[in-house]
Amino acid sequence: MGSTVTPVSDLLDGAVAAARAGGAVLVEGLRRPKQVELKSERASIVTWADVTAQAAILDVIRERFPGHAVLAEEDHPGASRVEAAQPRATWLVDPLDGTSNYAHGVPFACTSVAVRDAGGLAAGAILDPFREELFTAARGGGAWLGDERLAVSAVDSPGGALVCTGIQSDDPDAIAAFGRRIVALSRECRGVRCVGSPALCLAYVAAGRIDAFLERDATFAWDVGAGALLITEAGGRIEDLDGGPLNLGPGLANVLASNGGIHAALAGIVRAAEVMPG
Length: 278
Description:
Structural class: alpha+beta
Number of strands: 14
Oligomer: single chain
Shape: globular
């Protein structure tokens, strides 16, 4: 029993069901007081919807996959609990990505659910419940928006690229470094936007709506897991912002994601900006 491998199709079904359970809470939450609380600093907040959506998502995962582990954003009892001594898979759960948008009534936010097993990322779902857009991917099965197969854009130079980024920090040095990145990217790219919700931005990269997304010191495995699989399956590229594999375990997951064609150029722009004197 302990060595049973869960089929990827079952994992995808579970990711979709979990994302839908979380998304239903987000829709309900827009109509009620947000109950905003600070997590650790001015830029980091949590709402009623974050906590309630996570509980709904974990209920789905634990009912369907009791031998699996969970790495989830909101720190409450059970949020990061391992459900077995040697879990067969680990779920990466962001119940509400784009909390600041959401807390101000801006419906650019989503629920992101992914799962990784011994073979790496296996399945993922990103649900924008306000536009009723469900982005899904399964390892080897492509990336999809409903029944439409996704592909990254064909832009081949930063000058033609729309790039999204963001920051979530009270640290003056991090803010200054972010400013340098924005200036450098704005000099080279067609457009640079900060729209919130890294997970939804990654889904948009996979869909070819934007050409790249990058962020430092604010994203974690639950933010990027589902988006990473979507982008890979859609023909794009995603890695650590400093190069190398994306961190899908505990700790920061600094991210650079793109259609692939502009990846090296963007990495060079960011590197040059970050070594500039503050």
